[in-house]
Amino acid sequence: MPQISDIAPDFTLPRDGGGEIQLSALRPAPVVLFFYPRDNTPGCTKEARAFTDLLPEFQAAGVTVLGISKDSVLKHTKFRDKHDLGMPLLSDENSETCEAYGVWKEKNMYGKKFLGIERSTFLIDGDGRIAQVWRKVKVPGHAEDVLQATKTL
């Protein structure tokens, strides 16, 4: 599980609408990676909308925002189009990136245990180091907190 000041685990993942994104290729731009459980669920939709609403401010600061879940590229594309999302959504169907970032966890809902993505966000500086980590994210106000943190880079 990466910690603050560690080099962020690199990845190349397919994105909504086609193509791939490689994390290390985005340097020296800072990057926000937000991991979310599933497309088109209420909490995930609110989180993705919040980042989209603040996207102009992230972009003005030179920050790239990326969403990651295990949903397929096709699901991501439909999710993006349905909710007019502005940032790339990356598909980690085999969980390798989720596991590298320590967000693939055992969860418990209504007494049933299952594996899933723990809603988490990573702020990565222009050198590719993790500058800040938010785990077990609560959606209200989160995108604003992340935007504020980018101003300390």
Automatic annotation (TrEMBL):
Q: Which reaction is this enzyme known to catalyze?
A: a hydroperoxide + [thioredoxin]-dithiol = an alcohol + [thioredoxin]-disulfide + H2O
**Cross-referenced Pfam families:** AhpC-TSA
- Where in the numbering of this chain does the Thioredoxin domain appear? 2-153
From which domain of life does this come?
Bacteria
KW Disulfide bond (keyword) present: yes
| The enzyme's E.C. designation | 1.11.1.24
Keyword check for Cytoplasm, yes or no. Answer: no
Quaternary structure, per UniProt, is: Monomer.
Q: What does this protein do?
A: Thiol-specific peroxidase that catalyzes the reduction of hydrogen peroxide and organic hydroperoxides to water and alcohols, respectively. Plays a role in cell protection against oxidative stress by detoxifying peroxides and as sensor of hydrogen peroxide-mediated signaling events.
Q: What is this protein called?
A: thioredoxin-dependent peroxiredoxin
